[in-house]
Write a structure and sequence with these properties.
alpha+beta, 5 strands, 30% helix
């Protein structure tokens, strides 16, 4: 029963939002608040976040998306290797869906050198392990 009540609440929230004319939908009262790492991400981060070589993605292969890894970045296009070994070259960003959200830095690195940032990250990792 609680599941159906959550659906009804979500439907009512959506209806209120549609009638209000707002540009971004509010978080539903039944939706848990986003984690601190993901709160600063674009809601469409799957298709808008920058990609790096080695990122796990789903790539468009003839109209369907399949698991792959980014193997090379050439300008504004991406080469990927699919889970079965097939390759696709020259994909545009909108043909690739990032699977894992990018890590948002939890600390301000303004004015730090790359060496200092690396040292700070190692220190943070040690704290997380404890």
């Amino acid at each position: 029963r609680p599941f159906f009540e959550q659906i009804d609440t979500s439907k009512k929230d959506l209806e209120r939002w549609c009638l209000s004319g707002a540009t971004t939908p509010p978080l539903s009262s039944t939706t848990s608040s986003p984690s601190s790492n993901n709160s600063q991400l674009d809601p469409n981060w799957h298709f808008t976040s920058p990609l790096k070589v080695g990122d796990e993605v789903e790539a468009d292969l003839g109209g369907a998306f399949f698991e792959a890894k980014v193997s090379q970045i050439v300008g504004n296009t991406y080469n990927v290797v699919f889970f079965d070994g097939d390759r696709a070259d020259g994909l545009k960003r909108d043909q690739i869906k990032l699977l894992n959200p990018p890590v948002v830095e939890e600390f301000d690195t303004t004015g730090l050198t790359s060496k200092e940032i690396k040292k700070l990250k190692k220190k943070m990792e040690k704290k997380k392990r404890k």
